């Protein structure tokens, strides 16, 4: 090291200052005299706070509220329209993201005893992270929590056209009249929902597979596709983009049109779509570029493989949590892993053994909850029927339309569906899926049932309140008697 190199030492060094990194640092030092630092090259608070979960739900909320009001006589008559007012929606989004100002997040970290260093962290040796000329040593652990980045498929002319990614869609400023959405997953479906709310006139979804939300139960994609089609979306299944042409391409900033109109040529049909913007929602890749993983003999691309303690094999001082380890790309599951990793770091620092279940991240194998905030809403946890059968489970299912007193009170024309996947041998629920308005609040009860391995005989005594949407639990259990 040269004489100008600044060095410092912390017990825990976290690369990545999103909610996952924040949780890992906090849990590793909370209630102790240990020290921690977060290294972040963008904004403390990460993808979720500024470019993903929070702004997307902010954009989706007004349309959902109007749809709920429009479903009820007495409220419907007071509505002047069923489309949100775009400028007010975008202003609310900006308030939720704080205008991408992370000062309050930095204040939180400092209040929790966590230092923040601005810059790009790079591993340069065992327990050593470089940020520019600075070297930071970790006594106990280095935690990688760098998340993931949007993938752009290798389609002729696509990258050169500077298409929107999820960051642009959640931070949109210009509302395109015509847009192509490439992909059929969660980001694509949620973005299509709020783009329609904000006044997009022509929206085409180009989906390589044969259904939306393909990792879910089949009825999920069918219901979401039906709702989008009813709103005028043109969904092209089994289709790929052959090439893209665009003039006057310009990096105008997040959420602004990145040039003139684009011409999108489709491979199978030969159709040509002229649009104002292209949104690529075709998956994400672990953000490992520039981390220096080759310095410690790890692959410098792809997910960082960890065990259930979130420790990287062969490197007992190194942890990887969240999207970057490739286990589950959901903020709440990344935060769960971070809590586990933080507890593991604390336990090892204090010489405690790791026998307790709290030191092992097992929920992200088979008990992952997720809500997709489309209309209809989708809430699910655990295994689908096909996943359970593929795992060798002796499966039985309870499967029915979601129609109880609580749903009728939400909307006389309510449309929804529910399904439980049951391990017949153990008599426990291993998966649950609900589609319909108000189902987001059902998923945690299902998560508790799956994680707790509550038998059906015991679940029979969990009485749902009347009249609520949760009464569907009773109907599902009755169908199994």
Automatic annotation (TrEMBL):
PANTHER family: DIHYDROLIPOYL DEHYDROGENASE, MITOCHONDRIAL (PTHR22912:SF151), DISULFIDE OXIDOREDUCTASE (PTHR22912). NAD(+) binds at residues 183-190, 283. This is NAD(P)/FAD-dependent oxidoreductase. Its cofactor is FAD. Residues 10-337 form the FAD/NAD(P)-binding domain. Keywords: FAD, Flavoprotein, NAD, Nucleotide-binding. It comes from the Bacteria. Residues 368-473 form the Pyridine nucleotide-disulphide oxidoreductase dimerisation domain. SUPFAM superfamilies: FAD/NAD(P)-binding domain (SSF51905), FAD/NAD-linked reductases, dimerisation (C-terminal) domain (SSF55424).
